[in-house]
Amino acid sequence: MTDRWARAEERFRQREAERRYRRNDQAWEDYDDDTTVIPRYTDEDYDEELAAERSRRAAAQRAERTEPRRGRPQRGESALPRRSRGDGVGGGRSGAASARSGRGRSERGGSRSEEHAESRSERSRSAPSRGRRSRAASRKAAERKKRRRNLWLMGALFVVLFAGAAVFAGLKVVKMFGAPEDFSGPVGPLVVVQVHPGDTSNQIAEEMQKKGVVASSEAFFQAAVRNSNMNSVQPGYYAIPSHSPSTQAVTVLLGKSSRVGNLVVSEGRQLHDQQDVNTGSRKDGIYRKIADASCVGTGTNQKCITYDQLDAAGAGADLTALGVPSWAEQRVRDVPDRSRQLEGLIAAGTWDFDPSGTPEQILKQLVSASSRSYESTGLLQSGAETKLNPYQTLIAASLVEREALPQDMGKVARVIVNRLAANQPLQFDSTVNYALDRTEVATTDTDRAKRTPWNTYAMPGLPATPISAPSLNAMRAVENPEPGTWLYFVTVDKQGTTLFTESYSEHLRNIEKARQSGILDSGR
Length: 524
Fold this sequence. Notes:
The chain is mainly α. It is built from 17 helices and 10 strands. A hairpin with a 6-residue loop joins β9 and β10 (498-501). α1 packs parallel to α4, α5 packs antiparallel against α6 (217-225) and α13 (409-421) crosses α16.
């Protein structure tokens, strides 16, 4: 009996030691030491663990109820042992029963302790696994939440984009089928609008809207395509009232009076006005032509650049602001009379300029366009045969323009080149007239005797500047003179017949023919 109790007690102590100090190697191997992230438990994880714990507790309680109740008093029996009346026999039975009862309680107590120890051991082994599952579940839940959030964001972005596209498409549809915005009047001040070469009706409409003439380019375009005369619109500048209804803007554009800044420079015309000796009439210079073309508006509302403003601007010291090309800049800077420094730099032809600009801007626009026109003839590459630089070629071309008819320009250019090569004065009457206020074909001995930077009777070589606006034909004639040995020429009648010779005596006879025809008679 004593050995049995000792063995039972030993087993109890061994189980208690295992319960307290035993290491579960499998649990340590499965342990996921995630120290970088604190695991987050969700309500679902907590509910699952709580349900599992309740289930285990219920199972343990059922096991206890079904276990035999050894050593406990049955219903109706006393918990205290009954003594026998005998004097020792009863006491012996009672002692034996007590011993059995005590042994039964000890065995049941040991059994229950063993079961509790095993239950705690199982829970300790399963705790790391539950922790690992909880952390994995937490991570999965976080991932699911993140995916749901991303899906919501993508859905919201798609809705915004779709709504924007729908609004844009709706506006397009409304704009396409609805009436475009248009002014209803009254109109505002005049605005200068440029039509570029090659502009379409759509491009003109955009320029009209940009300058505030019409409310929308669509309205102007619709009005323009309904008017077949739009095909006749020429490049240039037009003065049109601002805030005009589209149909009215098209009508004004097609009207003859709307064109502004259109300049026609005839061949041989000079910058300043001249007066004819015989008729007394004024021959308008280029500055006068520009002033007339610069007017915008009518009556008291008309605005123009004046002749004097252009004259003053043309004498300015800032040659770059006036558009003087680099190949002429130094010679222009050396001109003795600043008011004549732009002579010849505005070429003959038809030009368009913006009349709303300043006098300097207008002159720069015209000089720059003329320079490009001159250079298109090969001016910068010429001079190999004539020994003339580009500005000298321009001067010589202005003399040809004033002295010859188109059919004789090549020969007159050859006379100039031959005389310059021989260092012989040119003796052109056109150079004498250039410095005079009153001009005529013939000149007097007194006029020819006046020494000026332009009088080729009084000095050899070319004049200080061009004396007129040369045509492109005159430029080409000087760049490629007609071959010949002529040194003299003279116009012998009013029809423009011109005779050329290399003999001075023959030249004198030709001069006599001119006198007999009356072409050399002076009105002074």
